Amino acid sequence: MHSDPHLYDFWPYRDRPKITWPGNKKVAFWVAPNIEFYELDPPTNPSRKPWGRPHPDIVPYSARDWGNRVGHWRLMEVMDEFKVRGSISLSVAMLDHHPEIIRACVDRDWEFFSHGIYNTRYSYNMTEAQERAVLEDSIKSVMDATGQRIRGYLAPALTHTERTLDLLAEYGFWYSCDLFQDDQPQPLKVKGDNRLISMPYSLEVNDVITYGVYHQSPRAYADALMRHFDQLLEEGAETGTVMCIPLHAYLVGHPHRIGPFREALRYITSHRDDVWVTTAKEIAEFYRTNHYDQSLADIARRGNARPGTGFNPKGAV
What we know:
Blueprint (H helix, E strand, L loop, with lengths): L26 E9 L22 H24 L5 E4 L3 H4 L1 H9 L3 E4 L13 H19 L5 E2 L10 H7 L4 E2 L9 E2 L9 E2 L8 H6 L5 H19 L4 E8 H4 L2 H15 L5 E3 L2 H11 L1 H10 L16
Parallel strand pairs: 1-2, 1-8, 1-9, 2-3, 4-5, 5-7
Antiparallel strand pairs: 6-7
Helix pairs in contact: 7-9
């Protein structure tokens, strides 16, 4: 048992070295549509059930299927309207189940990163060999289908093992979306020399949380997105911040929700003089090249650098 996962060092937000985004932008803004596939009757995982009711739970299954049939296309049209490229959190099995969606994303030069194979196959209790197989399959399958080398990872259904981040580093990933500790990227404590970073990926403005947990109205969600952006824009005048909107077409794509989301996207992108509208991969590449070393140096200067790596705190209290 661990009292602290030891995945990153404590690093107070104020008085950090300044992050300067390309073009002196204040906010790096990216949108993460989760394009997922949920199996009706997946293999049993002893730690978590995929559906709340006994098999066959066809109601939530079909609701998520609606997202791929209808919601995704509606969301894509809105993002096209404001020239926002998506960074796709991809259930890699979608390459086989719905290749037409993949082609539409490739045509738009959207980024892909891995969200596991299915969103009903959890990392809990995986062996190292099984977890490696997921990563290797993700890299190869997306490369074969799209020509892209994926560089990011969001664990399926946000499920992990103690080795997940170390394996990401070993396989040459640049960023993980699985941690929610900051509004700026941060180096992660992993084995080896790869510069794996934590990419800001919000739960607070994730439509799964706002609609499914907070039960916000569509207009309240749009208002939250704009207020979230305004605060990050204000702070971005001092040092660059990151805003991510994680989305699920089976939620935000509904007819009564897409309009308020369009208003929020219009508002955010109307500030393009101050906003770098980009992808997660481009943010990660820029940060790793230009700000990774100064971040580590500042953590050390403050006396906060701890030895060891994730779940392996050598010498740490």
